[in-house]
Specification:
- The chain has 936 residues and is α/β, with parallel strands linked by helices.
- The chain is built from 36 helices and 24 strands.
- The protein has an eight-stranded mixed sheet, sandwiched between helices.
- The chain starts with 6 loop residues before the first helix and ends in a 5-residue tail after the last helix.
């Protein structure tokens, strides 16, 4: 083609090539065997031009190439580059990749567990490590040229997201920031904020998946495409799926109708049989077998339950599935034995090693947070090597780990979010299915959703076709953040810095939209007011009377309910152990034996005023052998003892046999007693003078006789509803202005009251708090201040510190956690007392835990496990005692170790044993499975 160009054009093209060859990007591109995509080139060129970049692109599209170019530029320019990741597993993975490319001497690693070559020009670290460096003024920050923030969309994380914003705000202006994010729908908004706080930032958004993704639904024996084939952006849902959903919804066969005596025609039954033969949810082994036969393995099946992941592996093994040949099986065994060589044989039995190995040899594995980290790493390595071809995983696998598959299977579109079963969001669906399709290996990726009863193909198409994954700030000031900011910048400058957060940026921006809505509402109010006008009189006045009457009736109804609750609580307070009662309502309604009346002695479970809201919470044994802690909702009416019986001293609520024997005695003693029905009294509203007056005035009002009264009333109701909404919007506008700074002011006021701050001065207590990072930073500082942990042995200290980090996965207050006796029990009690004092102070200073600010109640559920492990007990004994998966146990131990390290740095050096014993506790915890699990 160059022959067709004129000499001048050839000269210009040659000049352009020469300029391009002289760039850093040209040399960088030669390091890779494949060509770079346009979005990667654009981002790298912006970086080389001295700009910061925000790259938002789908999972697996190669965003990390841009981060690696920042590493390349730093090494070329003789500067440092910090590569931050949200999780230790990803840090370890990135450290291995960069070490292979640039040499181990040039790359370091810093996580909570590991410190390798930390003075290297390129250091991979978790984001928290960099935040701590910024606050401590670390010398490692000198000559820092680039910071790569991988998975920057973690900024939305409710618990850890604030760390990302802290880093972005506090990094020196001279540092170039490279932000790598999953596809988010408000990348431009985030880019605008980065531009504001970091200077010139180029936003590069790529929607293109390098490996196209095809969506399917597996129902019965058939795999259906979710969308019809066709051109254009808007794809139609496969009509076969729509028809199938309609047929299922309109099934004529109904067993209840049959019981009622209705006859079902033979033709209808035949049609029902045909439908059932086509529509069912295939079993897990059947799904894997089907994917294997269609060449769609390796596959990740997402199941939102750890137990279900393990059960899925067992189901496949029992079904005789074998996805590996003999050669692959031998490779698996060799790798597994090499990776687990450090684990003692007695621990292997406890960890279910041999069952796990059998699955791996067949090419099948589970992957979830409850697994031992070493086991998870092995699964990841074997999957990437193609030696494990079917993985059953919880959604945690979708976060960061480089583990792509040819296919992704979703069993259900509903998951437990910690409070309820909720539909997965389009963002979550995109994140999960983003694993399908391996670049450079697969021509296409496949997302397969299993058919479920009442599934809506249109809803699924909405999930698959929506790119709504907005980045929402979760930034909140904390006590530690406040003292560190005031120490570095003073109160006024700190306040200004917090006003630059993405949280405040979004809040201020949203005010514009809310103001527009207020204006629209006010126009609507004018129209509603005109429509409710009555020719007989002032309908506004009449509507006010109706509303007052309704409010009074509602108020009296609430009072009646409140009185009934008080009466029920009073009746519960009279109960004693051994009383037999009839639980009137709830899941455990029926005969029950009171084991403990559950009368609260102050605040419990971290909820202020809990004792007033819920009253006594008796612990009972039901006739069905269940031991449960009941709540006020189980007692809508007063309850009294029907009979009494003796509870044997040998009764153990944890023993099934013990529960069975006592429940049998309970049924024998009182199974024949029929409880009296509670009679309702006369309604309070019937005798209320205010209600009588309002009804009289209402009837006497001129508008009461209007033929169009109810029509006017409907308009009036709309008017007042819209007026109420408008007032709320106006309050939101008022509330969103300076919200972060106002929270900071309240935190500073509390810290000043407690002598952590004096104006712009940080006291000795404040400097100690500045070294303590974590959710219960202030509680830890107060424990050091009051000497709560003085005189504790290392194992006892580990038990107490565990209460600062541990949070039970599910609230189960039926039985109190087992605690070490003696000093530990007393110290933990003192910690709870201090927390109660802090809780009262937070209430006084309007610091709201519901908004993510403040100190939750310490959870004592891991104290016994930490104490046993630090006391050199065996893994088998510890796990059996605490009934906890090995992975969870290791993770909590690592977190306890992390906080013990902070405490050893923050504790007084003179006249205190805490610092020395904290270091000893770390050594005593860091053994066995905890020590050889390199990933936390």
């Amino acid at each position: 083609m160059t022959e067709d160009l004129s000499p001048a054009e050839r000269y210009a093209a040659a000049r352009e090539r020469a300029v391009e060859q002289a760039t850093a990007l040209a040399g960088f591109r030669e390091m890779y065997e494949f060509g770079l995509d346009p979005f990667q080139i654009e981002a790298c060129q912006a970086l080389e031009a001295g700009k910061g970049v925000l790259v938002a692109a789908p999972t697996g599209s190669g965003k990390t190439i841009v981060g690696e170019f920042a590493v390349h530029l730093a090494l070329m320019q003789g500067k440092k580059c910090f590569y931050t990741t949200p999780i230790k597993a990803l840090s370890n993975q990135k450290y291995a990749d960069l070490s292979k490319r640039y040499g181990a001497d040039k790359v370091g690693l810093l996580t909570g567990d590991n410190s390798v070559n930390s003075d290297a020009p390129v250091v991979v670290m978790t984001t928290e490590v960099l935040r701590n460096m910024l606050y401590s003024g670390s010398q490692s920050l000198l000559n820092l040229g680039y910071v790569v923030m991988d998975e920057v969309h973690y900024l939305s994380d409710r618990f850890r997201g604030a760390v990302w914003e802290e880093v972005i705000i506090h990094l020196q202006e001279s540092v170039t920031l490279v932000s790598l994010s999953a596809t988010v729908s408000n990348a431009e908004e985030f880019g605008d904020w980065l531009d504001t706080v970091r200077g010139d930032t180029q936003v590069i958004v790529s929607e293109h998946r390098p490996v196209p993704l095809f969506q399917h639904v597996l129902a019965g024996r058939r795999m259906y495409d979710l969308f019809e084939e066709g051109e254009g952006q808007r794809k139609a849902v496969n009509p076969d799926l729509t028809r199938m959903a309609r047929m299922e919804a309109s099934r004529s066969y109904n067993p209840r109708e049959r019981r009622k005596g209705k006859m079902v025609r033979e033709a209808d039954r035949e049609r029902e049989r045909r439908q059932r033969s086509r529509i069912w949810t295939p079993g897990r082994p059947e799904v894997i077998d089907r994917l294997d036969s269609e060449g769609l393995l390796p596959a990740i099946t997402f199941i939102f339950s750890r137990a279900a992941c393990e059960a899925a592996v067992q189901q496949c093994l029992h079904a005789g599935l074998r996805l590996n040949d003999e050669d692959a099986r031998m490779q698996v065994r060799e790798i597994v034995e090499e990776r687990t060589a450090a684990i003692p044989d007695e621990d292997l039995h406890v960890l279910g090693y041999y069952e796990w190995l059998e699955g791996l040899e067949r090419g099948i594995a589970a992957h979830h947070a409850g697994m031992l980290p070493t086991f998870k790493e092995v699964v990841e390595e074997l999957f990437v090597r193609g030696l494990v071809r079917a993985v059953f995983a919880t959604e945690t696998l979708a976060l960061g780990i480089n583990m792509p598959a040819r296919s992704v299977v979703l069993e259900k579109l509903v998951k437990w979010n910690g409070e309820q079963h909720a539909d997965i969001t389009p963002g979550e669906y995109t994140q999960l299915t983003g694993r399908a399709g391996r670049r450079g290996i697969d021509v296409e990726g496949h997302a397969v959703v299993l058919w479920q009863r009442a599934m809506s193909p249109e809803h699924l198409a909405g999930l698959a076709g929506t790119r709504t994954y907005p980045l929402r700030s979760s930034f909140k000031p904390s006590y530690n953040m406040a003292v560190n900011l005031v120490d570095q910048f003073g109160r006024h400058r700190s306040r200004e810095l917090l006003e630059t957060s993405f949280a405040q940026f979004q809040a201020d921006k949203s005010v514009v939209g809310i103001s527009r809505q207020v204006q629209k509402n006010e126009e609507g109010l004018e129209g509603y007011k005109a429509s409710m006008t009555c020719h007989l009189g002032n309908f506004d006045e009449y509507a006010r009377l109706r509303r007052e009457l309704k409010d009074r009736e509602t108020e009296l109804a609430k009072q009646g309910a409140s009185q009934r609750r008080v009466a029920a609580a009073a009746a519960l307070e009279k109960l004693k152990p051994g009383d037999i009662i009839h639980v009137p309502a709830g899941k455990y309604a029926g005969l029950a034996l009171v084991l403990d009346p559950g009368i609260p002695a102050g605040r419990v479970n971290g909820h202020r005023g809990f004792e007033h809201q819920d009253g006594p919470r008796p612990l009972v044994l039901t006739a069905e052998r269940q031991v449960k802690r009941l709540a006020s909702m189980d007692f809508p009416v007063p309850v009294e003892a029907l009979e009494r019986m003796r509870i044997p001293k040998s009764f153990n609520a944890r023993s099934p046999q013990s529960r069975r024997d006592l429940a049998s005695a309970l049924r024998t003693k009182a199974g024949h007693i029929v409880p009296e029905r509670h009679r309702k009294g006369r309604a309070v509203a019937a005798d209320d003078q205010e209600i009588a007056r309002l009804r009289t005035e209402l009837r006497a009002h001129p508008c009461h006789g209007c033929d169009e009264r109810e029509d006017h009333a409907r308009w009036a109701e709309r008017y007042y509803r819209l007026r109420r909404d408008t007032v709320q919007l106006e309050r939101r506008i008022e509330g969103r202005t300076n919200t972060i700074a106002r929270t900071f002011d309240r935190i500073v006021a509390l810290l000043t009251e407690m002598d952590y701050l004096r104006g712009d001065e940080v006291t000795e207590h404040g400097k100690r708090l500045a070294r303590l990072y974590g959710e219960l930073d202030l509680l830890a500082s107060e424990c050091l201040r009051e000497g709560v942990w003085e005189g504790l042995s290392p194992a006892e200290l580990a038990a107490c510190v565990s209460a600062l980090v541990f949070e039970a996965r599910m609230a189960d207050d039926a039985l109190a956690p087992k605690l070490p006796s003696g000093k530990v029990k007393a110290s933990l009690g003192e910690m709870v007392r201090i927390w109660g004092r802090l809780d009262a102070l937070e209430e006084e200073f309007k610091i709201n835990q519901a908004e993510g600010v403040g100190q939750r109640e310490p959870d004592l559920g891991f104290a016994w496990a930490a104490y046993m492990w630090a006391s050199d007990k065996g893994l088998d004994e510890v796990l059996r005692e605490v009934e906890m998966p090995a992975g969870d146990f290791v993770r909590w131990c690592k977190q306890v170790i992390d906080v013990l390290g902070q405490i050893s740095a923050a504790a007084p050096r003179e006249g205190s044993t805490v610092a020395k014993n904290a270091r000893k506790a770390v050594d005593q915890l860091l053994r066995g499975v905890v020590a050889y699990s390199s990933v936390g």
